[in-house]
Amino acid sequence: MNVTAPFGVPFSAVTFEATSTDVPAGTVTVVGVGSTTRTDSGSHSDIMVGWYVSGGINYALSDSVGLFAGVQYQDMGVYKQTESRKQAQLELGGNIFLSLGITFSF
User: Where are the chain's structural domains?
Assistant: First the structure.
């Protein structure tokens, strides 16, 4: 049996685009003046740095076949973008990855 417990620093490239339209249907009509639509949009790219910790177990059934199980917790933080006084938030933390499988050695 083999037990592992690695940790590391992951990097992630994030590109986020946002578009918003004020007022229902985005159109304001003023009698005698006409109508107008207000739409805001923006885009932002960033490199996010986070952390992860993981653990795993490998169990040999024979010289060439084994089983493995592992778990990884990853946190990249919170990505925020502000356009025209409106903020969008993307939570990139608290991710848990599980892996189970069979290994073959040649």
Answer: 2-104
Whole-structure pTM value: 0.57
Q: Residue 50: which residues within 8 A CB-CB, separation 6 or more?
A: 9, 10, 12, 74, 75, 76, 77, 92, 93
Structure tokens at 60: 């040999």
Distance CA 90, CA 56 (A): 29
Round to whole Å and give the CA distance between 73 and 17: 27
Nearest to 76 by CA among 21, 20, 9, 31: 9
Query: Where would I find the beta strands (DSSP E) of 1-106?
Result: 2-4, 7-8, 11-21, 27-30, 34-37, 39-49, 51-60, 65-75, 78-83, 86-91, 95-104
Q: What is the pLDDT of residues 13-36, one digit of tens each?
A: 777 666 666 555 555 556 666 666
DSSP state at residue 24: G
